[in-house]
Design a protein that fits this description.
Chain A: One of its GO terms (biological process) is phosphate ion transport. Chain A: It is a multi-pass membrane protein. Chain A: Pfam families: BPD_transp_1 (PF00528). The complex is a heterodimer. By secondary structure, chain A is mostly helical. In chain A, 68% of the residues lie in helices and 1% in strands. The N terminus of chain A is likely disordered. The chains are: A mainly alpha, B alpha/beta. Chains A and B meet through helix 7 and helix 8 of A and helix 2, helix 3 and helix 6 of B.
Amino acid sequence: MSSVTGVSIADELPGPDRRHTLGGDGAGTGRLGDRLFGGAAKGAGIFVIGLVSLVGAFLLWQALPAIADDKVNFLTSREWSVDNASNLRFGILELLWTTIAVSTIGMLIAVPVGVAVALFITQYAPTWLSRPAANLVDLLAAVPSIVYGIWGLKTFVPVFDPVQSFLKDTLGWFPLFSDAGISGGSTILMVGIVLAIMVLPIVTALSREVFAQTPVTHTEGALALGATKWEMIRVAVLPFGKAGVISAAMLALGRALGETIAVTIILSTLAAGSDWTWSVFNGGETFASRIANNAGEFDSPAKTGAFIAAGLVLFVLTFVVNAIARIVIERRKAFIE
Amino acid sequence: MAKRIDVSDLNVYYGAFKAVEGVTMTVEPRSVTAFIGPSGCGKSTFLRTLNRMHEVIPGGRVEGKVMLDDQDLYASDVDPVAVRRTVGMVFQRPNPFPTMSIYDNVAAGLRLNGVKGKKKLDEVVEKSLNGANLWNEVKDRLAKPGAGLSGGQQQRLCIARAIAVEPQVLLMDEPCSALDPISTLAIEDLISELKSQYTIVIVTHNMQQAARVSDQTAFFNLAATGKPGKLVEVADTQKIFNNPGVKATEDYISGRFG
């Protein structure tokens, strides 16, 4: 997933004894091995930067002509009819809403639960339990998303549907919970919950790392003042880990925004021209699932361009979310040093 | 305030390892008692049993009795959290809470105790900072982070934080070892002032410091590495430094070992 950016967890987490690498010019000796390795490393770096730039350029190059031909406003329209190349009508409003809605629901569940699990593992669990528990949560990340999709559709949705019906009946007067006429329960809310389970390991792993780094002097200071365990966590552990938790949430959000196959499998698509509704009990399509649902029909450049334009928006969205995560991490670094 | 500490036959364990053995001593109220001895002899460990902070380390437990006036600290119905609210502690490295302002650091203990009123908090914060000889230096920047102060100021901030909750006893674990000589002097002066209100126990590696600030000195030693630490001798500071009763004490304070 682009959102996790292949950066190791250790790299995300500046600790108190994080040191600078000896990267000055004086560190190179000019010997053959040094020059070979230096050249290879530099080459790899340039290659990755080049690759990302090319992906961006490709998206722009393919999407811009289609957007120029678009007969409706690309950002504010809900229409999506791209079969007639001379009358392209497509807008991303509904995709944007669905993408953000499922990701937000996922975050609202995953962040508190993930933080709670991390606190349990680092502060409450006995030593013999904390490592297996941590590994078990990490294992959730190893489950392929297609498996989450099938499990969500076949097991989770039928089980959870009665709860959903209950919510619909009792809170239906509120627009967010109104009945949108989706049967079978494959709604935005369901997808959000499945996404929450999928991103839980990211939130947990990163939060666990920062909580475990809380300096003993801080926790002892709190305990010596007569803090209970929970008060110690509130006074020492949570403030220390706050920025780390925020960046963990951002990385998880990046993953949720781009999740494709589980969303495609679970979420009911809507018929063209359905009425707009704010309800989380509606179906819909995210950027990723709309592209996946139509991937077999990219037969004309104009049509392909429309889908690539949607992909471009998703690219920008995840890029912004990751950039915010980076900035938060950087600010935390400045705070610690 | 200020209570008497009575320790009898105390053994301290970490898991199966016996760290300190057979300590019996009395600390009078409104006095300063210094613990001296070579590194690893168990004086910090013993100090931490006086407010049950050693239990924070997995496997930490004791056998024996610690009485605070007529209350047994290790009775089964005593909550360690309540003990720590009565017996305050200052650590080796100044440890103000980094995300909190100077004001909030001092108020932290009170807030944990459920004190809310701003007027009451203002009053106690000023009183505690005054008590720690820090008020004049920080009164114009109470909202600034506590971590922005110098090392010596941070340590006095930690003392202010500890005395804000009005403990009976104040434990200090090498409070000056991370400080320069001038800050050390400021802390020592402060200890002499605090003595009028609190029972103070201080661990120190600095013999002159023990001689300067304490009324009573306890010398700890261990027979060999891996053996438990023991209380060798406890007596008036004058006596320990001028006329020690045990040869090992004399060797240690005269610098012949340790």
